[in-house]
């Protein structure tokens, strides 16, 4: 098992690379989720400011109606 983790003497570099990659992916996920939440909040505020009738008219004009 120790031989697997040592990776023929390159284990330090390999596992450090995996660790840094995992940290970067987690940070990217957190930032993306925060951005999504912010965008959804902004969209909800804009939707509330426009009103339901105007939203319906805009959806119909854009062809978004099912």
From TrEMBL:
Alphabetized UniProt keyword annotations: Cell inner membrane, Cell membrane, Cytochrome c-type biogenesis, Membrane, Transmembrane, Transmembrane helix, Transport
Example of a GO cellular component annotation carried by this entry: plasma membrane
InterPro entries: Haem_export_protD_CcmD, Heme_exporter_D
GO biological process: cytochrome c biosynthetic process; cytochrome complex assembly; heme transport
UniProt keyword Transmembrane, yes or no: yes
Compartment(s) of residence: Cell inner membrane
Transmembrane segments: 12-33
Mode of membrane association: Single-pass membrane protein
Keyword presence, Phosphoprotein: no
Recorded family membership: Belongs to the CcmD/CycX/HelD family.
Role, per record: Required for the export of heme to the periplasm for the biogenesis of c-type cytochromes.
The name this protein goes by in its record: Heme exporter protein D
Organism: Magnetovibrio blakemorei
